[in-house]
Amino acid sequence: MELFLIKAAQLVVALVLLVTVHEFGHYIFARMFGIKVNRFYLFFNPKFSLLKYDPMKGTLKLVAYDDKAGEEKALRTFRVGKPRTPRADGKPTWRDTIYGLGWLPLGGYCDIAGMVDETKSTKDLTSEAQPWEFRSKAAYKRLLVMVAGVLFNFLLAIAIYIGIAVHWGDDYVPYSAMKEGLDFSEEMQDAGFRTGDKLLTLDSEPIDAKDYNTLWKMIQPGARIGVQRGDSALTIEIGDQLLRSIATKGKDYRAMMIRVPVYVASTVAGEAADKAGLKPGDRILKVGADTTPAITEFRPALMANKGKETKLMIERDGDILTVPVHIGDSGLLGIQMVSPNEIFETEHISYDIFHAVPRGWEIGTGQLKSYVSSLGLIFTKEGAQSVGGFGTLGSLFPEKWNWYSFWQITAFLSVILAFMNVIPIPALDGGYILFLLVEMITRRRMSERFIEIANTIGMGFLLLLLVYANFNDIYRMLLK
Q1: Residue 169 and residue 207 in contact, taking contact as beta carbons nearer than 8 Å
Q2: Among 233, 259, 285, which residue terminates a domain?
Q3: Domain identity same for 26 and 116
Q4: What DSSP assignment string belongs to 355-405?
Q5: Does 309 share its domain with 432?
Q6: Residue 208: φ, ψ to 5°
């Protein structure tokens, strides 16, 4: 339960930040163009809100739902400012907006005056258009208001990546330092990779371990990966199936991992390794007849020789030694292995703000390209099965609160939210953007009634998609 709460808390904090920034983008551009914003809400508030701040009245209300009256009621009202009156010239200000917190945590909204959206229908727009309304503004201004939410989410992702670069920098192991090469999943081996392959090039360019999108680029159909296998260099060309076969894998799936050699950090007194005379710094090369260049082979070799007298081949200070050992029935030697962080030559790059900006832009745009190119998988059987809801999003976060991981995942979710909102589906920002682009090209405005019907259809589609995505989560958790 504790693990669930930690993951849920991280997801909620991330969504609060992402939704607030997205809606603030719409809000600030609407205000820039003199458009009134009626309400600015975090989370939705069908029938009632939790909190309401009215700057014009100078009140903050704690709200609940009154079953008898069938409407919301104020549980307590706090005076947080003096009452104000609207401007004499009728121009809206920030005080004309009610700021609130809803109870349904599925997003948020910015209720822009004179605009058909989830908060208003054509029945609410029967009066004559006012100069401070959305519908009275030039098409390019309305377009910028709608694009702003997407823009702010993408800029938030860039800002987070810049912050990560400044605070943590980059730590990575160059592929050239992976002396034993890599282990590959079954799917990667089906594509042509083999245990111990060392990565050299990607599409004829030197492969870069600090590139966030290296693996994604490697599994694209037609990608050409140069590897060293033993003393030979060869090229693996990726076919069409690899990307699909990996699409349904969960968050714990690893397509490839560094092969970690077995070095002794310490031995447990009285256990097999201690009795055999192993010392810190020894590298175990063989267990019996089994060669063990990495942990991948070491553990199976121990199990194959459990309960037996055998020999270990070890490397100590450049010398090769053979020592007898009795491996217990548990298949354990009684050693603590040296951490991979101490084995590999990890490189660290620190960034000042001037270098962090291009690094943040590089990562953000790279993540966007990778995500956009992956969307084609949704229309395949494997991709449809991989669609997930809140459970999938929550599972992205670690089981312990880690700020580095939190900001990495939040930035990626911000990229996703930015792109998903620009898809031209009515009820999303992308639907409005499409309508406005058509208007600007044809110089004919879509009727408010048409937009309302399109939004209703789009909202129905989105709700079905939400149900399907969360059903997939339940199915994977309980049945699969």
Answers
A1: no
A2: 259
A3: yes
A4: HHHHHHHHHHHHHHHHHHHHGGGGGSHHHHHH---HHHHHHTS-SS--HHH
A5: no
A6: -115, 115
Specify which residues 287 forms β-bridges with.
290, 312
- The pLDDT confidence band at residue 462, using thresholds 50, 70 and 90, is confident
Q: Which residues partner with 347 through β-bridges?
A: 172
139 and 74 in one domain?
yes
pLDDT digits (tens, 9 = 90+) for 279-328: 999 999 999 888 999 999 999 999 998 888 999 999 999 899 999 999 88
Residue 370 lies in a domain: no
Residue 222 phi/psi, 5-degree rounding, is 90, -10
Report the alpha-carbon angle 71-46-29, nearest 5: 120
List, in sequence order, every residue forming a beta bridge with 206; answer none if it has no partner: 201
**What's the whole-model pTM score?**
0.80
**Rounded Cα–Cα distance for residues 97 and 110 (Å):** 10
Element (H, E) at 421: helix 403-422
pLDDT for res 259:
92
85 and 229 part of one domain: no
Rounded to whole angstroms, the Cα distance separating 289 from 283 reads 16
Residues 6+ apart with CB under 8 A from 24: 110, 152
Describe the crossing of helices 403-422 and 139-167 by its angle, rounded to 10 degrees.
160
The reply to whether 208 and 101 lie within a common domain is no
Which structural domain range is residue 105 located in?
A: 2-166+399-478
Helix (H) or strand (E) holding 311, with range, is: strand 309-316
Q: Is residue 188 part of a domain?
A: yes
CA dist 422 → 139, 161, 366, 419 (Å)? 17, 21, 18, 5
Q: Which of 282-291, 389-398, 458-467 has the lowest mean pLDDT?
A: 389-398
pLDDT digits (tens, 9 = 90+) for 240-275: 888 888 876 766 688 999 999 999 999 888 888 888
Total Cβ atoms within 10 A of residue 377: 18
Reported as a pLDDT band with limits 50, 70 and 90, residue 177 is: confident
Q: What are the DSSP calls for 126-188, one per residue? A: -SPPPTTSGGGS-HHHHHHHHHHHHHHHHHHHHHHHHHHHHHT-EEE--GGG-TT-EEE-HHH
Claim to verify: residue 110 and residue 202 sit in the same structural domain: no
Do 96 and 37 fall into the same domain?
yes
